[in-house]
UniProtKB/TrEMBL annotation:
Signal peptide extent: none
EC class of the enzyme, as a word: hydrolase
Name of the protein this chain belongs to: UDP-2,4-diacetamido-2,4, 6-trideoxy-beta-L-altropyranose hydrolase
Organism whose genome encodes this protein: Halobacillus litoralis
Residues that, per the record, bind substrate: R159, E260
InterPro entries listed in its UniProt record: PseG (IPR020023)
Keywords: Hydrolase, Membrane
Coiled coil (UniProt feature): none
Annotated EC: 3.6.1.57
GO molecular function: glycosyltransferase activity; hydrolase activity
Domain of life of the organism encoding this protein: Bacteria
Length: 348
């Protein structure tokens, strides 16, 4: 089976789309599929990283920002030159049913990965791995009746390092190690803000900091970590599961990595860095799984430091979140999406 991915990353738009596509691509490759990517070059595009992961990347030519029509023309041109694919997966906020109808004539089946539910789609399969209050109704009227919906954390795309983890978290109430991770690009630089907040605590802590290779303030963060004992910087790491396993508390955003933290039973303080995170954060906050601190512009170094001090001093808050979070991912289906695509007749 041959599967293509149409996805982009950028310093401004983030790396989450590419990272979750790479996770699905890895599963498909393990199951025997041939996988390729179609990406547009832009600052922070992760094209080199995709290639280093062992995938062929066909670069989209043309202007930096193009219309859906022009994008469809370029995509079709690539597909006509490289041959047919059984599946095409599109993970892109700028594309919708118009693009999907145009490209759909050139592939057998089309899958959409989305989490906005703000535009129509014309696809055979749609994945939204997030948890919402109205999860079952979000795509009503936005997709054809033939579309199979895979909704909720049960279908979260988790890299093999998480699936192979034997983490059985037993916490004694002491915060000794903190994981700081705001995604690959972190355009508002919440990472450095958090490190300065931790510095103000004057508490002996081990801190693991994870950023992407495209982080615009990478050198500033590296210099800060070099001056501080106990702070270790990890760039484009492939050992996130291990870092989560060793952490007692995480500080991060409300993007797709929130489900990795839930899977690893890691309580986290959340700063909202994009509007599309709001609904997921709100749902998780209601369930008591995460601690929402506010929007990026509302949380400064002093406020964040005060929140950290509170949670370190009141371990019962973290214990409650730990107990609640253990049940959230209990129905997770490893390889659920990829097996369905490969035609085993099930989604579990």
């Amino acid at each position: 089976m041959r599967v293509g991915f149409r996805v982009d990353a950028s310093t401004k738009g983030g790396t989450g789309h590419v990272m979750r596509c790479l996770t699905l691509a890895g599963e498909l490759r393990t199951l025997g599929a041939e996988v390729f990517f179609m990406c547009r070059r832009r600052p922070g595009d992760l094209v080199d990283f995709i290639q280093e992961s062992g995938y062929r990347v066909y670069e989209m030519t043309g202007a930096y920002n193009v219309s859906w029509k022009e994008d469809a023309v370029r995509t079709i041109h690539i597909l006509e030159n490289i041959g047919s694919a059984e599946w095409l997966v599109v993970d892109h906020y700028g594309l919708d049913a118009r693009w999907e109808k145009a490209v759909g004539h050139h592939i057998k089946k089309l899958m959409v990965i989305d989490d906005l539910a703000n535009r129509p789609h014309d696809c055979d399969l749609l994945l939204d791995q997030n948890l919402y209050r109205n999860m079952e109704q979000r795509y009503k009227g936005l997709v054809p009746e033939r579309t199979k919906l895979l909704l909720g954390p049960a279908f979260t795309l988790l890299r093999e390092e998480f699936l192979q983890s034997t983490c059985n978290r037993k916490w004694d109430g002491n915060v000794r190690r903190i994981l700081v991770s705001f995604g690959g690009s972190d355009p508002t630089n919440e990472t450095l803000k958090t490190l300065k907040a931790i510095e103000k605590l004057n508490v002996p802590l081990m801190v693991d900091i994870v950023i992407g290779s495209s982080h615009s303030c990478r050198q500033d963060i590296a210099r800060f970590c070099e001056r501080k004992e106990g702070m270790q910087l990890h760039v484009q790491t492939k050992e996130m599961a291990r870092l989560m396993e060793h952490a007692d508390l995480a500080v991060g955003a409300g993007g797709s990595s929130v489900w990795e933290r839930c899977y690893m039973d890691l309580p986290s303080l959340i700063i909202e860095t994009a509007a599309n995170q709001r609904e997921v954060i709100s749902t998780l906050q209601e369930k008591g799984v995460v601690f929402y601190l506010g929007k990026s512009e509302e949380v400064d170094v002093n406020l964040l430091s005060q929140h950290l001090q509170r949670f370190i001093a009141e371990p019962d808050l973290i214990k409650k979140a730990l107990e609640t979070g253990k049940h959230l991912m209990k129905d997770h289906k490893p390889y659920g999406v990829s097996r369905l695509m490969m035609g085993d007749g099930s989604d579990g």
